[in-house]
Design a protein that fits this description.
alpha/beta, single chain
Length: 562
């Protein structure tokens, strides 16, 4: 590989360039790329951004020439996803494009209809309300197409990336050194491309998953659901409950979940227990049931679906990896699916880039599945629990009645709603509190409970004395945070330099508030590119080279942090 440059950087700076318009015009494909991404939805595009910002040559192959606005699908971008977008320089751009600003509402309302009686509400939902220093970015409600458009522009603006639209990967094979993929274009013409690695982000019907012999394991719900997008001019005039990001409709004619796609006339809705045929036939009746009155409405699109709780038996075969819906599926309640997929893309992206740069070892790639599978399993469990009580389970007599029976019915409904649905809308402990406990690239945690809880966890967020987020001073690769000098931090720098590992050193002993230093509870923290604490201690270990070999994936795996 030749001589390694000095890899320890103390004051790196990033510059953001302008992103050109996306073009679907096709040119001849390169014969070889470092990473081929099959599928250019949010997960595939996120993987490309993570790779492209690190200079990794990446080709994204996506069948859809344009982003579909007819089916907005996911609408919740959680705090963790927004923190990644901030790291990529895209958070502000996405918020500018989002039709509904965070300031407009942070509420979820349960009601008999949009014009009917309110039963209960949750405020400060889905990470939309700041909580002191707890996170760098609030969540954001935005249709999936807004995220995709922003990510497409970002990928097209990266010199290392190419976005190929209107084409699909139709065959994959590999040997010990390369992956060979056949790409079919819209006119039927085919080309062959080789890659060092391939990421299958091609969704629930993944061809890549099929080609590597992986399969879903798990269950599928029996109850159908009917999704639709509709336009209803003047509907807002009849909404009695004020702005909200979701309205849960509890009445026997249209038990449903509905929300605005913008602040004008466009809405999305999910009618529970309604199959495709009934939904197509009765869409107008369902909309009026949601509204609680006759309204003018036009159905723009429909999307029948059934919840699936499934996870692949393996996420990797050789040089081919699966991410996002190609690897796992969960009910949408709580808004975890897309965000989990973006977490996959971040984890795999920086690890592939590190291996391709030469400083990452084989166990770094092994850690992808061992780190992500527990996260995916927990998300499936939580989303399944959220699905146990929907509008159909909350139906009761007299909810709209004006008499004493109505009052009692609404009080009982409110109590049950608060008891059964709070975890769905206040899930920051899940979003921010997931900890990696089984990984070949995280050394065993210290015995002290506080330090054990931080090892393998997201670096707690804090603002420095000058107002900057601590996340904004982290380097692109590994970062050593020095909270108290004189902890033999130079030994870690020297080990990184000897191994060719890019390491940014940040001395925060004067920049960080004392309460943040106490929160971290150690003099030194080694932080990974995904903002996960890979190691912490009060001084460098005796064998700093062994530490560096572990976190970069060259040490024998020990599989465990506690």
């Amino acid at each position: 590989m030749g001589e390694q440059p000095d890899s320890v950087v103390r004051v790196p700076e990033e510059c953001a360039g302008q992103v050109p318009e996306v073009s679907a015009e096709r040119r001849r494909l390169p014969r070889h790329v470092q990473v081929l991404v099959a599928g250019g939805g949010p997960v595939g595009l996120s993987a490309a951004v993570e790779l492209g910002l690190r200079g990794v040559g990446c080709l994204v192959v996506e069948p859809r020439p344009t982003v579909s606005r007819a089916r907005p699908r996911c609408k919740t971008l959680n705090v963790r996803t927004m923190e990644h977008l901030r790291r990529w320089g895209l958070a502000d751009r996405l918020r500018e494009r989002a039709p509904i600003p965070v300031s407009w509402s942070q509420d979820v309302v349960f009601c008999t209809s949009l014009s009917g009686r309110e039963l209960s509400r949750f405020t400060g939902v889905l990470g939309l309300t700041p909580e002191g220093d707890r996170f760098a970015e609030t969540g954001q409600q935005a249709p999936q197409y807004v995220l995709e458009e922003v990510l497409r522009e970002a990928v097209s603006g990266l010199d290392a990336c190419e976005l190929l639209l209107g084409s699909r990967v139709v065959a994959v094979r590999q040997d010990g050194d390369l992956v060979t993929a056949t790409v079919e274009h819209g006119g039927g013409e085919r080309e062959v491309v080789t890659a060092d690695y391939l990421i299958g982000c091609d969704g629930p019907r993944s061809l890549v998953r099929e080609q590597i012999g992986s399969r879903y394991l798990g269950e599928q719900a029996l109850r159908p659901n009917f999704g639709m997008v509709f336009e209803s001019p003047g509907l807002w005039e009849h909404v009695r409950h004020g702005p909200a990001v979701q309205y849960w409709i509890i009445n026997p004619s249209a038990p449903a979940l509905v929300g605005p796609l913008d602040r004008k006339d466009t809405w999305w809705a999910i009618a529970f227990g309604v199959d495709r045929e009934s939904g197509e036939r009765e869409a107008r009746r369902l909309i009026e049931g949601v509204a609680g009155r006759p309204v003018n409405a036009e159905v723009l699109s429909t999307d029948p679906w059934t919840a699936r709780m499934q996870l692949v038996d393996r996420m990797r075969h050789g040089r081919v990896f699966l991410a996002g819906d190609a690897a796992h599926l969960n009910p949408p309640f709580g808004g975890h699916g897309l965000n989990t997929g973006i977490g996959d893309a971040v984890d795999l992206g920086w690890k592939l880039a590190s291996v391709l740069a030469g400083w990452g070892g084989p166990h770094l790639l092994d850690s992808y599945e061992s780190e992500r599978r527990p996260v995916q399993e927990q998300v499936i469990r939580e989303a399944t629990a959220n699905m146990r009580v929907l509008s159909t389970e909350l139906l009761a007599d007299n909810l709209d009645a004006a008499d004493t029976a109505g009052v009692r019915a609404r009080e009982a409904a409110a109590a049950r709603i608060q008891d059964t649905k709070k975890a769905e809308f206040h899930s920051l402990d899940l979003v921010l509190g997931l900890r990696i406990t089984t990984s070949p690239v995280i050394p065993p945690a210290p015995e002290e409970p506080g330090r054990a809880a931080l090892t393998g966890a997201r670096l707690p967020h804090g603002f420095l004395r000058d107002g900057r987020s601590v996340y904004d001073v982290l380097g692109a690769d590994l970062t050593l945070l020095v909270l108290r000098p004189g902890a033999r931090e130079r030994a870690i720098e020297e080990a990184a330099r000897a191994r060719g590992v890019p390491l940014t050193v940040r001395d925060l002993s004067r920049a960080a508030p004392e309460e943040y230093v106490r929160l971290l509870g150690a003099r030194l923290l080694l932080v990974r590119p995904d903002q996960v604490v890979g190691w912490l201690g009060d001084e460098a270990p005796d064998d700093t080279c062994a530490l560096m070999d572990t976190v970069r994936g060259f040490a024998p795996p020990h599989l465990g942090t506690a």
